[in-house]
């Protein structure tokens, strides 16, 4: 093995994308294995590789890690993106959990029935504008710093940047009422590791299309 973390998931965003973002932001190169058939997935379960019979699976530092939250906590701690003390870590956790709630809606959107798509899109827009983005606008305005916690780049900043771009794909003008977040997005986009991740040809995955949805349903069918 090369020593690089090895990520096993489908060739698409899903629950692995925030992990890809975090590793990329930390400047860590990784390898990927893509599941394309139910047989591949069933073999991982049969071999006892997946603790809870779920992916994402990340092999790192001799561990086979599952559960997105646990994987990301480990990566954030390992690469110094998890605050300097317990209080900062608690703030990061709160922000990350909030962003994850918004991202869950975006994650499930491609699987919406056609007649529910418009309603679900409206829900994403409404939650982003009225519940989630105002929190981060206020935090950045109140402390006047570049980053969300402790004036230092953290896991929370990475998650927020991913969420901003994901919502903008669906609601292009979503940041029009959030000047602090506009500045934040520009600064994040210019950080060398993130700038690299946003370039064509990086491991960042495109928005889910019909083929991705079809593959998910095929691999995970009961």
UniProtKB/TrEMBL annotation:
Q: Which residues form the GST C-terminal domain?
A: 85-209
Q: Which GO terms describe its biological process?
A: glutathione metabolic process
Q: What is this protein called?
A: glutathione transferase
Q: Does the record's keyword annotation contain Transferase?
A: yes
> Which keywords describe this protein according to UniProt?
Transferase
Family according to the record: Belongs to the GST superfamily. Alpha family.
What PROSITE patterns would the database entry show?
A: GST_CTER, GST_NTER
- GO terms of molecular function: glutathione transferase activity
Q: Which Pfam families match?
A: GST_C_3 (PF14497), GST_N (PF02798)
What sequence ranges are listed for the domain GST N-terminal?
3-83
EC no. given is 2.5.1.18
Keyword hit for Transferase: yes
